[in-house]
Amino acid sequence: MNKIKGKLILILMILILVIIVPVLNIKAQTQTLSPTSLKYVNDYAGIMDDSTKQYIVSVGNELENKTGAQSVVVIINSLDGRDIESYANGLFREWGIGQKDKNNGLLILISMKDKKWRVEVGKGLEGTITDIYSARIMDSVAAPKFSTGNFNQGIKDAYSVFADDIAKSYNVKLEKNSHIKVNENGDKNTKGIVSLIPAAFIILIFIILIFRSFRKGPRGGSGFGGGGFGGFGGGGFGGFGGSSGGSSGGSDFGGFGGGDSGGGGSSGGW
User: Which InterPro entries match (predicted)?
Assistant: First the structure.
């Protein structure tokens, strides 16, 4: 029994490290980024022209004034080996994009050297901007332009589509938006969701190892007992609660409203 407990403790420690260390690392790294004075567009790679910046600021400001929702673009040079999903989620929460009581924020993150994009969606907008839909818009509207080096138009068009979708969910119309038409019958590309598979696979492996360790108890007995699972009840994993990332809300940082992300969205590349 002591050997089983030892194995269980070791597995749990590894699992905790796998989850917590990347979160703390991403949080520390995203703290070095502060929102620019333009708020809705934060170009740390220096690729956007002034007219595109002005357009996004104009549309973003109108969207927030009419709905309270905040749609933000962030462009970085490189992820430096980090995964874009964790980076985007950490940045979203650190800045607190969207309103705290509605969690109606949206982040479009683009990493130039990695040739990757991520759309991170606040909990309150997940019904409007679904994972599959955000992937389809980026793959059909933005990525083709990114591939030809036309980043300004690609970002502008994707931002326009998402802004219109959000406005429509609030039953308002944006006067300053260019209202990009999207082919509703187009291929609903799911490449963005595929990026979630590796993380899910790793977690599944750990769960299987835990079950196997228990089932190999002395004389074939089960190691579970009747008292549950150590100190971990049904209320979540340690201090993480029911959401990923270890945070229960945003930070209301740099003019944002303290919104939160539940980890919804999509990722891809060009």
Answer: TPM_dom
d(CA 199, CA 259): 25
Delineate the domains of the chain, giving CATH numbers in brackets: 37-193 (3.10.310.50)
Long-range CB contacts (< 8 A, 24+ apart) of 195-203? Answer: 195/84, 195/85, 195/266, 195/267, 195/268, 196/85, 199/85, 202/18
Tell me the chain's radius of gyration from C-alpha atoms.
21
Strand partners, 265: 120
122 with 105: CB under 8 angstroms?
Answer: yes
Burial readout 109-147 (b: 16 or more C-beta within 10 A, e: otherwise): bbbbebebbbbbbbbbbbebbbbebbbbbbbbbbbebbe
pLDDT digits (tens, 9 = 90+) for 59-91: 999 999 999 999 999 999 999 999 999 999 999
Classified as helix, coil or strand, 96 is coil
Average pLDDT of the residues in 253-258: 76
Any bridge partners for residue 60, and if so which?
Answer: none
Of 135, 137, 242, the closest CA to residue 191 belongs to 135
Taking the C-alpha atoms of residue 2 and residue 49, their distance in angstroms, rounded to an integer, is 64
The contacts of residue 247 (CB under 8 Å, 6+ apart) are 93, 260
The secondary element (H helix, E strand) that includes residue 106 is: strand 105-111
Per-residue tokens: 255: 């003019």
